[in-house]
Amino acid sequence: MEQEQPKKVRSEFIFFAWRNAKLRIGVSILLVFIVFAVVGPFLVKYDPYEYSGPMGAPPSREHWFGTTIFGQDVFSQFALGTRSTLTVGLLGGCIGTMVGILVGLLGGYRGGMLDEFLNVITNIILIIPTLAVLIIIAAYLEVRGILTQSLFIGLTAWPWAARAIRAQTFSLRVREFVDLARITGRSSLRIVLTEIAPNMMSYLLLVFILQFGGAVLNAATLDFIGLGPTKGVSLGLIMNNAVLWAALQLGMWWWLLPPGATIAAIVGALYITNVGLDEIFNPKLREM
Amino acid sequence: MLSLERVTKVYRLGAFGLQKLIAVRDVSFEIGEREIVSLIGESGSGKSTIGKLILRLTPITSGTIRFEGTDVSTLNGLSLKEYYRRVQGVFQDPFASFNPIFKADRVFRMVRDEFYPQVGMREWNEKVEGALRAVGLNPPDVLNKFPHQLSGGQLQRFLVARALLLDIRLLIADEIISMLDASTRVDVLNLLADLKARGLSILFITHDLSLGYYISERAIILYRGRIAEMGPTDKIYNRPLHPYTEMLMESVPRLDRKWEEEGRIERKAALTGSVPGGCVYADRCPKAMDICTREEPELKEAETGHFVACWAR
Amino acid sequence: MLQVENLTVYYKTIRGYVQALEKATFTLADGEIMGLAGESGCGKTTLGHSLIYLRPPMNYIGGRVVLDGQELPIWDMEKMQEFRYRHISLIPQYAMNALNPTRKIGKMIAELLESRGVSYSEILPELKRRLDLVQLTQDVLKMYPIELSGGMKQRMVMVISTLLNPSLLIADEITSALDVSTQKAVCEMLVEFRDRGFVKSTIIITHDISILYQIADSIMVMYAGQLSEKAPTEVVFQDPRHPYTRMLIGSLPKVGVRYQEERLRGIPGSPPQLLNPPPGCRFRDRCPVAFGRCTEVPPFLEISPGHSVACWRAF
Ligand SMILES: Nc1ncnc2c1ncn2[C@@H]1O[C@H](COP(=O)(O)OP(=O)(O)O)[C@@H](O)[C@H]1O
Ligand SMILES: Nc1ncnc2c1ncn2[C@@H]1O[C@H](COP(=O)(O)OP(=O)(O)O)[C@@H](O)[C@H]1O
Ligand code: SF4
Ligand SMILES: [Mg+2]
Ligand SMILES: [Mg+2]
Known about the structure:
The complex is a heterotrimer.
Chain A: H1 4-19, H2 21-43, H3 74-110, H4 112-127, H5 130-140, H6 146-173, H7 176-182, H8 188-196, H9 201-224, H10 235-244, H11 253-281
Helix pairs in contact in A: 2-3, 2-11, 3-4, 3-6, 3-9, 3-10, 3-11, 4-6, 5-6, 6-9, 7-8, 9-10, 9-11, 10-11
Chain B: E1 2-13, E2 19-31, E3 36-40, H1 47-54, E4 62-67, E5 70-71, H2 77-86, E6 87-90, H3 106-115, H4 121-134, H5 139-142, H6 152-164, E7 170-174, H7 182-197, E8 201-206, H8 209-215, E9 218-223, E10 226-232, H9 233-238, H10 243-251, H11 290-294, E11 300-303, E12 306-308
Parallel strand pairs in B: 3-8, 3-9, 6-7, 7-8
Antiparallel strand pairs in B: 1-2, 1-4, 4-5, 9-10, 10-12, 11-12
Helix pairs in contact in B: 4-6
Chain C: E1 2-13, E2 16-28, E3 33-37, H1 44-50, E4 58-67, E5 70-71, H2 77-80, E6 88-91, H3 95-98, H4 105-115, H5 120-133, H6 150-161, E7 168-172, H7 180-195, E8 201-205, H8 209-215, E9 218-223, E10 226-232, H9 233-238, H10 243-250, E11 301-304, E12 307-309
Parallel strand pairs in C: 3-8, 3-9, 6-7, 7-8
Antiparallel strand pairs in C: 1-2, 1-4, 4-5, 9-10, 10-12, 11-12
Helix pairs in contact in C: 6-7
Iron/sulfur cluster (SF4) is lined by residues 242-243, 281, 283-284, 287, 289-290, 294, 298, 311-313 of chain C.
């Protein structure tokens, strides 16, 4: 009996998770791309920047996704680009979530001056146009890698997450189990880590997914306007080049469509997953 | 043992704390050894705030709270921990008092981590089982379970057991039975009575007057953060001096007598804004005189041990 | 006059049916104020709701409800619309906090009446008379719900829900969140509404039995989805026949009773799960006088006029 209940709770979660069509669709799409990001680069036959074929050729057996105007293999660029875009999304999303959690938990639990201070910083970063700052920073740096890009994106995307987590923390910290931990003599840090954070796990997962989606989009935007990594490929960079060389006007859809559709699909799938998870975590939204 | 001297608590609300809410004002009372004192008042009258001030869960605005002579606000670090070893609390909502994602007996483990890290696991488990039995629970029935697998009454007794693991002298019980069903209520009440027999003092916070009578020898009637009346429970219940207490006693649904037809119960019963200079009860009081709206009555002793704050007395 | 026969309502969940109301049979006379009491989770709200609005996942399983000689199609959400509010009115638990905060109260009432095909302006004089009666100024019609205190809101809700003189009013825990003085005012109002004929009969759902002692004509006690006992109020207190009722009354603290003088006793144990309740009398586990027969479900039988009990020991 004792052992049964928690299992039931977990299996109920899986039951609802499986029944939720949005989650199934979202996760499936994501899985496809993640698998592709891992496996894809091994299928690559050409160096992405090597002039390996005829210029501007449509998809063929040699070049599955055709070639660019210079004769580079689009599939090679695409496979490596998907990997780096997902990496930036993951890293940027992690950094954004982490900073958001830290600031949100700290301000929300301690309140007072510290909270006011963090709140001001949060609001400043929230108000200044993120993209403009990213552009300025990106333009300033001569060598830009995937890591630096993730860092920029993560460090500018956390404010809304911090706000949401702060609000959650506020509502949790007045719960009686927190008072109980306090009169047991627990330190604030331990209370935040062992009482409050575990209760927000589902919420933190949602925050991470949204940060992930946002980071993918931000990275693509930066690349697209030519401020992406100076070395390497990414989906945004492919699109940037395609647009630069007027792929659309020349009817070279195979150059522009795969990266564009993939970014849309990844971000879309993340949002659908988010809605699905929300429905599962929030019993009120569960459909019986 | 515990004394409050002109304790005031002001909450700051709104952006930058510009608005003020006076939750408790100039409250003084004492709790003696082996005494159960009821703190009675309607919701919002400041009962929980007083409990939280005593437990150092919210900072005091002015006044002093002393426990065995020591000013509680001076405690920190180790001395605060020693204070919690002797003064503990149990709160209103048994379900909210447990972190829903952990097993309920985690509250015991936490006590061991913080206060008795040197005690061996075997010895500790015995101690926990002893405490559970002392509150009328059968350890195998309740250990190793999640909060949602236990009833409200069981959880509430769990919390009392948790307090018993420490060498407590004073227990702050904030509406601990208001969420329980009648059938389990009495058991928790009786448990408090047993604790008193073991030498504990209890501040029993409640809005239910019949519970207060059953359990306590002294009662404090709180109204809008002020003490209206304070004294031996039977005097307060049978010969209330303050018009507010009178009104309360007439409205308690008793099982031994029906409400009088059309008592003088005000149906207005709407609280209107903040209180100006006079008596906090003046706007509802049937006995209000001129002075009541101008000057605030002080708490004064009407007969031995029985205090009232009312100009009409 | 309300007659309920074998009314059975379950909640459909992924793990099966929660048997929250099992074969309820009782009558409610005109002019009767009946209190419905029992531990939380015993099915009081379910019973109240099933007479008017089967909110999913409630499932109608069987039984009949007859109001003033007419059978109610309670299994049919559409057809029930005709009876709701006009003939049966429900004040749900927490109703006073559920008032739409963005609507002025007068406007809200007008919309409600319109949806029932009643003209607001025609009923306005009566509405004002009733507001006077409960000592609310007519200005409340121009106010937003947040501008009223808890007691005022509860009185407002009572006036609204009885405006069309329904035959039956169901009030679910309307006094629970109130202070004793407002509690008393609201209770007195319920009696007054009955006396003035605004409602014919009333079911008051509450877990606070001392309130029922004050105003109810009869009390019905439920346990784990089944009716245990129904009797006139005095009889319930003087001569309860179901062991659960007895223990419940024995556990109530009374002003004037101290633990040193008279130690009250609770009821050991806790109610059974309603997902797969044990067969037979559901109180059996906690019952001090249970015997072999109790493995069969005791019928809810009238043992003297107006006094019904479901216990093998009482027959
Ligand atoms: N943390 C808080 N911040 C602001 N106001 C509060 C807070 N806690 C309580 N109050 C206010 O203080 C008053 C007294 O509250 P409380 O002590 O909880 O009363 P009681 O326990 O008697 O119901 C109420 O008006 C309440 O709204
Ligand atoms: N939506 C629901 N789904 C499943 N079970 C429910 C639902 N609502 C209530 N129940 C169950 O039905 C039983 C009766 O509930 P309720 O009528 O609300 O009790 P009461 O009003 O007496 O406290 C309880 O055991 C409760 O757990
Ligand atoms: S029927 Fe049996 S078990 Fe049920 S209440 Fe009566 S004696 Fe107890
Ligand atoms: Mg309180
Ligand atoms: Mg209910």
